[in-house]
Structures are given as structure tokens and as C-alpha cells.
Amino acid sequence: MKKVLTFVVIAILILISTFPAFAATPINTLVKQQLDLAKEKDQVERAISDSQSNPKKFLVDNKHELGRKELMNVSNPDDLIYGKAYKVYIANKEVIQDLIDRKNISNALLNTSYEWEIPVKFNNRSVASISIFFGQ
């Protein structure tokens, strides 16, 4: 968990320092980050609505094991709602090098793994999230 958190913090710091690179990102790359327009839309929607895996029920049934204090007041999976999905790129060597070199990263992002992150909310507050990985 600490490694993941460390990676996320480093990635955020790198991204904050490279906002000019994002200004040059083509609009079609940005459009593909919206789930409604993404080619994976059906896969993501199936994954979160799958009656066998039922992510909301899993969160409620395993709230103690997960150690999520935000879930302790949730007793019914139907009380949880999904937030707006967003795309999270998993930086590979090419993306990191382009960031270091202050190059446009849009082409590098086309060749990297990513996941769709779906926030799970209770009483309008994020209590968890679900990630659906699309790797290369």
C-alpha cells in the first residue's frame, strides 16, 4: 500500500510540474478519457453491474476486513452509488522520460496501460473506488 501511495504522490508531483505538456494534448486524446465516449464503456459498465462480482455488495460484506471506516455505516449495497468514472494512466518508462524531457506525452499515453477508476459514494461522500485495468 505504501508503494502504491508513494507512486501516486510522485506521479501527481510530476504531472503538476508539467502542465504545459497537457496544454498541447490533442482534443481526441482528452475525449477518449470520458467513459461515455470510450471504447471500453460496455466492459466497464458490465464489470460494475455484474451480479456475480457485485462490487457494492463486496464492499458492504467486507467492510471490516477492508478496514474502511467510511463504509461502517453502510448496511445495504443499494445505498452506495457510483460516481463519474475517470481514466487513470499508468506511467511507463516512455511517459516518464517524456515528462522529464518536457515533451508532449500524448503519443506516449497511447502506448501505456490504464484503468478506469469509478468512485463509490455514500451520502455524497467518496467511501471507496473500483478500478478496472486495461493493460498492454
- What is the chains' assembly state? single chain
The total beta strand count reads: 4
Question: Termini, distance in Å?
Answer: 23 Å
Over all CA atoms, what is the radius of gyration? 17 Å
What is the makeup of the main sheet?
4 strands, antiparallel
* Low-pLDDT runs: 21-25
> How would you spell out the order of helices and strands?
HHHHHHEEHHEE
* Rounded average pLDDT: 80
Which term fits the overall shape? elongated
In helices, the fraction of residues equals: 40-55%
Number of helices: 8
Q: Beta-strand level of the residues, as a percent range?
A: 15-25%
The SS-based structural class is alpha+beta
Can you offer a commentary on this structure?
The chain is α+β, with helices and mostly antiparallel strands and 136 residues long. The chain has eight helices and four strands; from the N terminus they run ααααααββααββ. Strands 1, 2, 3 and 4 form a four-stranded antiparallel β-sheet that branches. The radius of gyration is 17 Å and the shape is elongated.
Record the SSE blueprint:
Blueprint (H helix, E strand, L loop, with lengths): L1 H15 L2 H5 L3 H5 L9 H9 L5 H7 L1 H4 L14 E2 L3 E4 L3 H8 L5 H4 L4 E9 L2 E10 L2
Antiparallel strand pairs: 1-3, 2-3, 3-4
In short:
The protein is an alpha+beta fold and 136 residues long. It has helices at residues 2-16, 19-23, 27-31, 41-49, 55-61, 63-66, 93-100, 106-109; strands at residues 81-82, 86-89, 114-122, 125-134.
Main features:
single chain; 136 residues; alpha+beta; 4-stranded antiparallel beta sheet; 8 helices; 4 strands; elongated
